[in-house]
Each structure stands twice: as C-alpha cells, then as structure tokens.
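Full entry
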Amino acid sequence: MNPDIKRVSVDQPRLLRETMTQAIYSLTMNKLRSWLTIMGVAVGVFSIIAVMTALDAIDKSVESGLTSLGANTFQIQKNPATTFGSGHSRNLYANRKDITYQQALLFRKSMEAHTRNVGFMISSMANQAKYANLTTNPDVTMTGGDENFSASSGYTVAFGRNLAETDIRYARNAVVLGSEVASTLFPSGENPQNKSIKINGEVYTIAGVFAKKGAAFGQSQDNFVLIPITRYLNHVNEKSSVSITVEALSRKDYPKTIDRAIGAMRLARGLTVKDANDFEIRTNESLIDSFRDIQRAIGTGAFIISFMALLTAGVGIMNIMLVSVTERTKEIGIRKSVGAPKGTILRQFLLESLFLSLVGGVIGTILGTAIGNIVALKFNLPPIFPWLWITVSMVVCSAIGMAFGLFPAWKAANLNPVEALRPK
C-alpha cells in the first residue's frame, strides 16, 4: 500500500475533528451573536414541530373516539359536524327544522328489520348534580336517551340497570350515572342504586352506573347523566333536535343501511321528491376525512410559515458569517500564509454555519415536541414524537446552513493572504 495514501486516510478524521473544534471555538467567541442566530432557526423549527405534534395528538384522539362508537354505526343529525363556508351555508343549516321525537320514532319503526340498533339522544352542557353535601362541577352533560342509547353509543352498565322501555314511556325520573359523576357523588364506593340525587334542582332516582369509557376528542365520556328522552323533552327543553344513532346489521350491510336510512328519514320528515335532504348523515369515515382535510390545511400553512421563518434565519446566518469573515480576515491570512489549504478554511466556515443551523433545529425540536405533547396530555394520550417532521426539519436545517453558509465560506477560502495581512 502507498504510505502517502495510508497517511492521508489516517489524518482525515483528525483533520475533521480539528476543523470542528476550531469552528465551535470561533462561534463561542461571539456568544450573544451566535445565540441570536440559533434562536432564529429554533423559532422556525419550533412552530412546525409543535403544530405537527399537536395535530398528531388530536388525530389519534379523533380516531380512538370514533372507533369507540363502533365500525358499523352512523348518526343522523340536523346539522353537519363542522360548518365552514359562506354565511349563506350557515344560515341554511340554522333554518332547518329540528328532528322531533315523533319523527325519530317513525324512522325507527321503518328501519326495525334492517338494523341492529337505533338509539336516540339529546344533550345539554353545563349541568350540576348534587347528593347530600356533595356536588359536581357545573360541567356535567345531561343526555336524554332511550333504552337503546347505551348499546348504540358503546356504553355498558357496570352495576344497577339501564333505562327501561317503561322509563321512556312514562317519562320517569330515573337516571343512569356516568362513572365520573358516580365517583364524585359517591367517593367512598357506596352503592348509589335507588338513591335520590338532584340535577339542576330536579329529583332523580339512580337506576344504575355506566362502566368507565375514557376520553374522546379531549373530553371525558364519563362526566354525564342519562335520563329518559321523554322526561328531557318534558322537563328540560322541549325544543330540542334529536340525534339518531344507527347500527347496521353488519359491515357488509353498512352502505345499504345508510341508503335505507336516508329514504326512511326523508319519509319521516315529510320531504317530497323535489326537496333536498334537511338532515346530515355522519359516519366515522366522513368525520375522520373532514378532520384530516382541516389537518392538512393547517399543516400546510404551518409548514409554509415555518419555511419562510427558516429562510429568514438562513439570511441571518449568511449575514453573521459574512461579518465573521470580515472580522477574521487577519486570522484567515495567517492560516493561508502558513500553508492552510482552501478546502480546510472552506470546511471550517461551512461547519460553523451548519452548527448554528443544527443547534437551532435541535432546540426548536425539543421545545416544539414538548409543547405538542402538552396538547397530547390534554387529550389523555401517550407521548408523541413526530419522527417524520423531526427528520424533515433537520434535513431542511442542514440544507439552509450549508446553502447560506456557502458564499461566506467561499469568500473566506479565496482570500488573498497578502491582501488579508496588509495593514488597514
């Protein structure tokens, strides 16, 4: 083997280490300037990582929440889940008539032979339950439902009983508690069945308690009470639109069941052939697709804004490196006069630029992931690490560091040592 080749191969790693050490040392000589440049990069990376981590957390929450409803279920409601667009569109939904309880009953009767379950529900927020000297926060959801509510909504009764058909028929003051409400009012584990509680001043007898279901969409699914839908309409709010949850017989029958449901709902609503549907079908897939459309729009916007911020930071890196070259002209001249090759000087200044960019990227990634995971914690999800976006951010930071550091490095490498050492 040629000894010169062996010597070069051995010296290259040492030369690279020395160049990196020299680059880091040069940056530490101007700590404030270096940190300001680093933070410019960190802000751009932070914004994209924080947004994408938060969106991943919300996406997982949406998926888990919709999965808990069952693969074969869909809902019929007065309005769509989300309303975007012009004021005319929003007014169109606002002017729709409520889905009445009588219409819901007609719908269920016509769908009996084609479904496994048809459940009804109406909900209102900001309610408060009280037992003895214990009171819940005024954030309990009151749901009016029928005997099929638990099956169609994925709830199981932990102990006691579910609402019965007779509770619905006679609008009894029976109530089934969500597990969170039960643990608040009966913290010692006392059996609450047949106990009387007050909800917004009305007295109800506890029929049973639902098993814990957990959170979905960042909200607890256990902080609610279920009363007969007929009592809800008679005592809480008679002008409410009923939401209908339909469970198809099987996944194979799912599309056909939706088609039948649309026809049955049109008949129940008294629509003619010329009338458009004045209700919405909400499937798990449509809700996920709607959310992901929003997610893509937000993600694209965040990426564009972050990329612009990184380009601005790149201009800052170039400016700082040009100033550094000007300040270190004599140092560069001395190194070149004692034999330092152009490549070594070029590498040093490129490494300084790359180091500034990557350190900013790492700081932005750490802060962005931390903030995004605060959102994940809010949605009761495990820690999320958006590896794809972390990788993309590091690649972009590297590219920006190299691209914006190339001209200052080239300028430094091509300095004439005689001109560099000439007294000013």
